[in-house]
Amino acid sequence: VIGAVEEHRVDAAGVRLAAVELGDRSAPTVVLLHGWPDTKEVWDPVAERLARHLHVIAYDMRGAGASSAPATTAGYDLDRLVDDFVAVVDALVPGKAVHLAGHDWGSISGWDMVTAPRLAGRILSFTSMSGPSLDHTGHWMRSRLRRPTPSRILAVAGQARRSWYIAAFRVPFLPDLAWRRVVARRWPVFLRRVEGVEVGDGFPAATVAADGAHGMGLYRRNMHRRLGRPRRDPVAQAPVQLVVARRDSYVSPRLFDDLDRWAPVLRRRSVDSGHWLPRTHPAEVAGWIEEFVGDVEAGRMSAADPATASRRGVRGRLVLVTGAGSGIGRATALAAAEAGARVIAVDVDTATAERTADLARMLGAEASALTVDVSDAAAMERLDERVAAEHGVVDVLVNNAGIGVAGGFLETGVEEWRRVLDVNLWGVLHGCRLFARRMVDRGEGGHIVNVASAAAYTPSRTLPAYSTSKAAVLMLSECLRAELAPNGIGVSAICPGFVSTNITRTTRFVGVSAADEERMRERSTRLYRRRNYPPERVAAAILRAVERDEAVVPVTVEARAMRALSRFTPGLVRRLARIDAR
Amino acid sequence: MLRFAMMDSAGLDRFREVQRLAYRCAETVGAGLEPGVTERQAAARMRRFLLDRGVDDWFHLPFAWFGDRTAFVGFRLPHQFFPTDRRLEEGMPYILDVAPIVDGYTADIGYAACLGDSPLHARLCADLEEYRELILSGVRSGRTLRTIYDDVDRLIERHGYTNRHRAYPFGVIAHRVGRVRQRGPRPTVAGFGTRALRSLLHDGVMGRRGGWSPLWGPGRSSDHPPTPGMWAVEPHIGFHGVGVKFEELLVVTDGDAFWLDDDIPHVRRWRTAAATA
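Predict the joint structure of the above. Result:
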């Protein structure tokens, strides 16, 4: 650490801790907690940036760097680490409430501090990096194993795969020996080659061999105790900022799925980084800590703050719906409004979009209406820029706008093909292209919902153009989901069956006279109405898909049945496709 | 149609009188509703009010719906329409629906209001005006009842509301009422006056022969031009747990139609709003 640094020795229960402080004491204080097998020096590049505006304290954890080590494994109990923190802040900033940032074991122990009732009021905020609360993790595993679905088992297995070394550390003596004799020596090489961390300039510390061996006490003392019997109600008593490293080899992002339960005021950040982000992304980390500390100090972090709203669900988030002037789009915009979202209703018809925004406002939501033809690339780009300028980054995009075309392939003209693909496919493409880019750049995740149709997997001689466009939307959604998953962006394809909306009134029936077309519209409208499946239920399914991050969601019985049939009895589906439904 | 021949202006006056009585009942009882009152209690008050003022029979016994029951949320079976022990709370919408008969002259009215202020409720009530105009102009231009029903559906869709009259038995937006004969006992069955039901049934049988139906619904049986007579029209719209409706008599004559009375609460409300705007 460079600059005005003051070094301290603090006596805590049975150990002497080495602490440094830098920056202006009158500024808000941030305490930085390092992980295993690091020392406080892991924070150097972050600390020197923070010290420009904040007062920074960092100390070596017991058993690491210049701090002394406890005599027994019991000395590594998480409760002792909390005691150490109290000793340090009491000695350096007596009576002052502080902000906290932790990485790896520093973050794990930070969770214990921010959830400890005795420290309520002493900790103003907590920024957590690559270190989940062991209590939360214990609850997370329990809830997943209690109701094991394949995806839940996969999530637990994903974390288990990243945690092999924890089990290895349970073996007595051998891992210590291996660490001191072999691994520690190769540690700088490992950091550089595998983790992509620049080494040198005091990192890793010269004491890494001893630090690593001592620190195994952390795993031995705490892991099984806390994971096996997690404490009840480990709820954070201060605003929490979670920074998720998406390429972390040791901590699965899935571990934080339930975090909203434990951190009522939560801001999520996501960064494309490995485990050692304080070293690989110091500027970003410092910026986020400083911004968060600033927001908390200014009282901008409250449960009602949109920025603090949970990643799941739509409450407090910005939701943009295309085709929001009627049917499923309007119902979705209104359902989102009712769930507490900020809503942008987009439709090619200005009056209907305005009406939707109006209704959304009546439900108490912040809402606005914009007019755009989704098939117009230039117009979509203008929309994207206007939304970004006036409302910010869209959190949930619902590509719903679509039109119907019915009639045989040979009767469908080039113009009709163009029109249906322009709206149904290109409209979705433009939406995904523009808004996903902003979601990725922002790095806080998001969700894209594409409204496809049961026609996407139901061949029929009556709807070749429509089905083709929707099948493309379905596949696009699946591909996009794979691509955007690392960015924390979910993609869902919704496949409704016969839903009572006005699409039947505007559907183009090709190859028939105008009078016949009108008759067919009437007939299909009545048919759909008799089916009586309201768009509100599709809207509910859409919100559920966002909340649970579902991939493909058939809505209505017939949509689910056709999906099952198309998988298991494709021959039958092909026979059904021959029926002329007109 | 024979039955309508006797509908001279004196007859219409009698109908209008009963309808005004019914509205007075709804307004008076509505104004007296306090937080905590139940639907059953409200219905009993309306019944008392009307019996005290000479009502001698019912097309149906008074209905009262509070809260999201005004939008028939979760209604599956007909018995759910009957008054329950749901209590009225501040800000809750409510609907009162009474159909008294005096001396054989029937009224059937619906009155939607809200305990306290609700902008959402006010908006829905204001939007009802369009439905009243749409239905009358549809009938006047001789469109079939089924087509008018579809027109109403389209307007509901444009407004972003849901069609709640679809939840009524047979999904009707209106039904015929007429004079009932004054002889014999007057029991009610399942909340409906037996003589009114008999009259409706009679219309049904007549209509079956003549190709029309006394029930104005979405189906093929309503695919005919308006038949002369008295129709109790009750468009009922809902939006996120709030339902509003009006119900009043529409007089259909050969070649024309008019609302029985324009001096009724919801019309007065619209006029005041238009005057202040």
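The interface with chain A takes residues 119-120, 123, 150, 153-154, 157-160, 162, 166, 218, 239-240 of chain B (CB under 8 Å).
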